[in-house]
């Protein structure tokens, strides 16, 4: 047994500490490169898969059939209408800190680490921002967390906490998004004590004892309570007004680290203007990773959204909530023209000061948006629960060790799936929103997917772009919402985690098609 544990640990260390080479265009790899890297990955996946197979699955994992038989799903839908049923929008807002003062006792999210990745410093706030919105027929709530990710299992707990209140207030849906900061307290659990989890999980699973994850119980309890209170605060503060949509091109400040080069270059803004002239609420959407302090640090920070909000608060006196877009490998591009605050350099460091300047620049761009559309008060909304196969043996192993806190079910002999959800929303007759529980590849939404000639497996991506199937509406993606299932690549762009970063933290090569299949089934149901 001791040798088995040592083999387990060494295998995981090998995988997690592997240095990936810079990504190249598909046609820059030779057939020999592709063969070697594919075989190498399959060998590691196979080895880890064997080790994972030796560990009993937790007793809480039900078969997929039993799960759907015994579980009340959160699928919900409004009646889809094409004409406004009222004259006004109704919006409320609330925000609060998520911090408890004991952040140095917590793990930090972001890149995987074999060592204990406990927080060492707290440089700024980590918040929850909540917006309640209605066209008069029911209330839809959007919660945005400064967090790396939140599993659907945690989302379900929060929805259950608010079940009675939701029924009382006619809340039709509660959506919880994460801005995916790599510098926040771990709320996904994946950055816990990997060594302890993998050494002790076999015996814990046999005895039916729950495995610990990277979640801090005190921090999570506070998070639940703060989300609950801000949902109630947003609903209770709802007021009548108008909703406008506009966008600004932020191409200069966004880059795609992975082919195909597909980006939603816009910062999208929904601006609610109260009828009585009170404080506006802005829901901002853009697909840009929050990695201003690096992916593997131990400093707690809200990253660029913290300074984006600061700029908007100070210059527009508007409430701020942001939801990530399709951000698969989309990252920041600071450029040469950012003005860095030398006091921040002195008090923190150059990287933090540049991140702060970047956030201020995005805030400035958001403030420059000229509204292009006044939206009729129509809010059509629907969600659908589906399962995503976990073919990535690394995540299977992490799940069995307690580090993957998503809802996992048994989908066959030695096969597992994550229970997750997707959603679709229409605002007015002009805007369509695809809601994804992972980091969606922009090409799934906007087209330009890898072709068969470019693909390592020589296959086509068989789904049409979502933007071509929303009846001419402008398509926006709300990503990492109601779950964090990792990267959602098109199936034919899966390569090898020996040469790419994304493959190591995705459920598997069919995560993209699992989402697309469920999303189009939902779209067919409502449209």
Task: Give a brief rundown of this model.
With 527 residues, this protein is α/β, with parallel strands linked by helices. It is built from 13 helices and 20 strands.
Detailed description of the structure:
The protein is of the alpha/beta class and 527 residues long. Helices cover 31% and strands 23% of the residues. The chain contains 13 helices and 20 strands. The strands form 5 sheets. Strands 1, 3, 4, 5, 6, 8, 9, 11 and 13 form a 9-stranded mixed sheet that branches. Strands 14, 15, 16, 17 and 19 form a 5-stranded mixed sheet that branches. Strand 15 (408-412) and strand 16 (415-427) form a beta hairpin. Helix 1 runs antiparallel to helix 2, helix 2 (31-53) runs parallel beside helix 11 (393-400) and helix 8 (304-316) packs across helix 10. The radius of gyration is 22 Å and the shape is globular. It starts with a helix and ends with a helix.
């Amino acid at each position: 047994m001791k040798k088995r544990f040592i083999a387990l640990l060494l295998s995981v260390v090998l995988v997690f500490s592997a240095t990936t080479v810079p990504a190249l265009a598909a046609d820059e790899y030779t057939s020999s490169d592709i063969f070697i890297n594919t075989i190498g990955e399959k060998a590691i996946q196979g080895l880890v898969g064997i080790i994972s197979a030796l560990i009993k699955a937790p007793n809480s994992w039900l078969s997929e059939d039993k799960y759907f038989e015994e579980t009340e799903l959160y699928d919900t839908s409004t009646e889809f209408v094409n004409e406004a049923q009222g004259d006004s929008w109704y919006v409320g807002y609330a925000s609060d800190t998520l911090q408890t003062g004991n952040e140095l006792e917590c793990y930090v999210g972001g890149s995987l680490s074999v060592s204990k990745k406990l927080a060492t410093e707290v440089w700024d706030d980590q918040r929850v921002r909540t917006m309640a919105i209605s066209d008069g027929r029911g209330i839809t709530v959007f919660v945005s967390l400064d967090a790396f990710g939140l599993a659907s299992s945690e989302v379900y707990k929060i929805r259950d906490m608010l079940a009675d209140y939701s029924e009382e207030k006619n809340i039709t849906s509660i959506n919880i998004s994460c801005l995916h900061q790599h510098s926040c307290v771990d709320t996904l659990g994946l950055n816990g004590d990997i060594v302890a989890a993998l050494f002790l999980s076999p015996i814990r699973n046999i005895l039916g004892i729950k495995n610990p994850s990277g979640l801090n119980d005190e921090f999570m309890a506070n998070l639940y309570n703060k989300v609950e209170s801000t949902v109630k605060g947003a609903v209770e503060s709802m007021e009548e007004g108008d909703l406008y949509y506009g966008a600004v091109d932020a191409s200069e400040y966004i880059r795609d680290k992975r082919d195909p080069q597909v980006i939603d270059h816009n910062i999208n803004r929904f601006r609610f203007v109260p009828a009585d002239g009170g404080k506006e609420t802005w829901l901002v959407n853009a697909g840009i990773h929050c990695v201003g302090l690096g992916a593997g640090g131990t400093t707690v920070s809200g990253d660029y959204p913290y300074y984006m909000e600061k700029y908007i608060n100070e210059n527009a006196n508007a409430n701020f909530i942001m939801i990530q877009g399709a951000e698969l490998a989309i990252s920041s591009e600071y450029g040469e023209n950012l003005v860095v605050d030398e006091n921040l350099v002195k008090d923190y460091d150059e990287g933090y000061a540049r991140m702060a300047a970047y956030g201020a620049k995005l805030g400035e761009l958001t403030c420059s948006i000229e509204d292009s559309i006044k939206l009729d008060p129509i809010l059509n909304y629907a969600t659908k629960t589906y399962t995503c196969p976990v073919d990535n043996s690394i995540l299977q192993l992490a799940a069995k060790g307690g580090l993957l806190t998503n809802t996992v079910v048994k989908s066959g002999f030695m096969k597992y799936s994550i229970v997750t959800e997707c959603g679709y929303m229409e605002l007015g007759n002009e805007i369509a929103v695809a809601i994804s529980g992972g980091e969606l590849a922009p090409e799934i939404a906007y087209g330009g997917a890898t072709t068969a000639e470019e693909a390592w497996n020589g296959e086509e991506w068989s789904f049409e772009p979502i933007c071509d199937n929303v009846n001419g509406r402008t398509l926006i993606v709300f990503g990492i919402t109601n779950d964090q299932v990792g990267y959602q690549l098109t199936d034919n762009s899966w390569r090898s985690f020996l040469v790419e970063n994304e493959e190591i933290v995705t459920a598997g090569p069919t995560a993209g098609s699992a989402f697309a299949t469920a999303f189009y089934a939902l779209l067919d149901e409502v449209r």
